[in-house]
Amino acid sequence: MVDDATSPDRSGQVDMNSEPTTYETPDSPALDYTESPPPPEYQSEHIAIESVNSNSAREKFNASQVDGTSTDFRTIKTKGWHLSTRPESGVERIARLRREIEELATDLSDAEHASLSQGLEAACMTPNLATDSEATGKVASKTNLESIERLSLLESRISSIENRFNSTTEYNLAAQIDLLRLKVNAITENEVMEDIITRLKKMNDESATVAKSAVMSRLEELYEASGSIKGLAKSTPILVERLRSLQGIHESAAESKMRLDTVKAALNERRAEVANWSQALESMEEQMKLGMTTLHQNADVLASLVDPLLSRLNE
Fold first, then answer.
1. Which pLDDT belongs to residue 129?
2. Could you tell me which residues come within 8 angstroms of residue 97 by beta carbon, excluding any fewer than 6 positions away?
3. Cβ(111)–Cβ(168) under 8 Å?
4. Around 44, how many Cα atoms within 13 Å sit in the side-chain half-sphere?
5. Which chain positions lie within coiled-coil regions (predicted)?
6. Distance (Å, rounded) from C-alpha 2 to C-alpha 8?
């Protein structure tokens, strides 16, 4: 064991201080703890922080604001059902028309129309009356809504059918539906179908005969013209040779015409040159005449001067 007196003093060295470590505490008995701030929440641009306003969403997608009166819901694809891309045949079309007429006749029955009108009157009268209990009020409102929906559906279907028939409100639709049913039944009868088939066959035969008659008339015309064609067959080689000779003559005539054109152009040039030379000669002749006159005048002047000199010399 090492004595404290002989042990070296390590109080000045780091982590070698022999004195005990003291910690100071605040004067207040209650300790003041500072809470750390919460971590910042991650905010993304694609996340909506605001709450959803259910009332505005309900008003936006309210069914009463959608106008579906002119919509034909029979052609809408439902789940598990697909429209056929195959073209509709005549029998299928007749069956579909018959089925639609029957559905329309059932929809336009007097009993249903009366019940719907009564429901509409009840729906119009019930808002003005006071209900005794909450349960009876709910049942009445539900029945009124159902009757109104059925009536609106019926009115939409009637309006769509009237638009197809191009009719007005004064148009008797039930009578026309019965008439259309009679027409469809008359068309689908076997006798009518056989009559239509026979007419089609007759029209096909007539069209074939007309086409054959037109072809035969053309063939007869060609047969009549064949005699004249055979008669001309002997003279065709001579005509061909003459045509060839005429072609050569035309070619030589064209060449001679070109040569004549060149000769005419040369003659015109020569004529222009001759005209220029004639003008030059005329100007030279005029100048020579002027020179002769001046020479004669000079000779006369010299003679007038020489004669006195000669007379003096002779003297």
1. 44
2. 180, 184
3. no
4. 3
5. none
6. 10
Q: Is the dihedral of CA 144, 150, 156, 159 positive or negative?
A: negative
Q: Measured between alpha carbons, how far is 253 from 251 in angstroms, rounded to an integer? A: 5
Tokens of 240: 């061909």
| pLDDT score of 162 more than 60 | yes
pTM equals 0.23
From CA 120, how far away is CA 112, in angstroms rounded?
A: 12
Contact 92, 120 (CB under 8 A): no
Neighbours of 119 (CB within 10 A): 19
Residue 307, exposed/middle/buried by CB under 10 A (0-12, 13-18, 19+)? exposed
What is the residue whose two structure tokens read 């090492």?
A: 2
Three-state SS letters, 199-248: HHHHHHHHHHHHHHHHHHHHHHHHHHHHHHHHHHHHHHHHHHHHHHHHHH
